[in-house]
Amino acid sequence: MPEAASDGSEGSHVKDLLALTEHLCAVPSVSGSERALADFVEARLRAEAPNLHIERMRENVVARTNIGAPARVVLGGHLDTVPANGNATPRRAGNVLHGLGSADMKGGLAVMLTLAARASAAPPERDVTFVFYEGEEVADEHNGLRHLFEVRPELVAGDVAVLLEPTGGRLEAGCQGTLHVRAVFNGQRAHSARPWMGVNAIHRAASLLERLSHLETTDVDVDGLTFRESLQVVRIEGGIANNVVPDRCEVVVNRRYAPSRPLDVAVQELAELCAGADELEVINASPAAPPMLADPLVAELAGRVGAVRPKFGWTDVARFAAHGIPACNFGPGDPELAHTAGERVEAPDLDDCAAILGAYVGLRGV
User: Fold this and answer.
1) Prediction pTM value
2) What region, left, alpha or beta, does residue 140 occupy, with left being phi > 0 and alpha being psi -120 to 50 degrees?
3) Residue 88: phi, psi to the nearest 5?
4) CB of 343 closer than 8 Å to CB of 337
5) Residues 6 or more apart whose Cβ sits within 8 Å of residue 303
6) For the segment 240-269, what is each residue's pLDDT rounded down to a tens digit?
7) What is the pLDDT of residues 85-97, one digit of tens each?
8) Would you say 240 and 248 are in contact if contact means Cβ atoms under 8 Å apart?
9) CB of 323 within 8 A of CB of 289?
10) What's the CATH number of domain 10-174+289-361, 3.40.50.300, 3.40.630.10, 3.90.550.10, 1.10.1040.10?
11) 360 burial class (0-12, 13-18, 19+ CB within 10 angstroms)?
12) Under 8 Å between Cβ of 109 and 25
């Protein structure tokens, strides 16, 4: 595959980043199957960034400078993708790369690998940690960052963290929190020809569905950024046969909430909205992250990027924030194309992201 550019020229740099992204996309890494890509990332780091301290834990690879700088920047990117949607094979069209993971987030991984090689060749002004991790697109228990924070927190410690999720050339500050609850309605089975002898659990859930379907989206201002909250029924299950009155109905509700409220308050509010259910189970609960734009290191990056907006969705910035590390999202690609069949990334986006982050950590020649 192409070697990293050595002359720093824009043309060769863009070409190499796009080619590297294409190579990364050609290595399948659907959640749970990240080993081949982790092997590639580790091998490339050891070959092209030999002066960095490199450690591998499961399918997580961490590479760090250790120059004793007064500030450490953590750059993070997940290795896994969602399942393919007719786009498993990457396809190049000029300066555009189409394919699974091109935006979310193998373009970001390519930028990280390139910056790691440069940081090894000439020490930056700030210490940098590059974290390539597994299991971001699935349940939290599989998240590689969670594992690292639990067993080796010193490997992911820093003064600021930047997640290279696709952000469309903007810095996305903070993130929404997310909750999933399962509301259960019980009934009594009967023959569907004699429904008066039973209780239809699905019909009992109708009032909840009606109530939630009429809730309006709420805009919440947090530190000058407008976060849009949402609430959706995302799953419903009930019934055992076409001639039986169902005795159980399960409704799964997803709540996306602004970082203006703590997690426990968001859980309580959702429980109140689901009043009337016989059982209520919190399936997962992830806290929101505040924008943190007042932090000097976040503010500096925001100034370099030039455009800031809130993050709609949950990312691992919330995990860093929960550990006291200011964090934000900034990476190549359009976030609205993530998880779609039309996912793609463009060469100028890769180049701009690498240039901004390279200057931010103080790499030479930027």
Assistant:
1) 0.89
2) alpha
3) -65, -30
4) yes
5) none
6) 999 999 999 999 999 999 999 899 999 999
7) 999 999 999 999 9
8) no
9) no
10) 3.40.630.10
11) buried
12) no
Place of tokens 């940098």: 128
Look at the domain 177-286 and name its fold.
Answer: Alpha-Beta Plaits (3.30.70)
Question: What is the distance between the alpha carbons of residues 325 and 74, in angstroms, rounded to a whole number?
Answer: 10
Q: Where are the domains of the chain?
A: 10-174+289-361, 177-286
Q: Give catalytic residue positions.
A: 80, 136
What's the token pair of residue 248? 């159980």
Q: What is the per-residue pLDDT for 274? A: 95
Smallest CA-to-CA distance from 220 within 266, 179, 261, 272 is with: 261
β-pair type (127-133, 248-257): unpaired
Beta-sheet strands, E only, within the chain: 53-57, 60-64, 72-78, 91-93, 96-98, 127-133, 160-163, 171-173, 177-186, 218-222, 225-238, 248-257, 279-286, 308-310, 327-329, 344-346
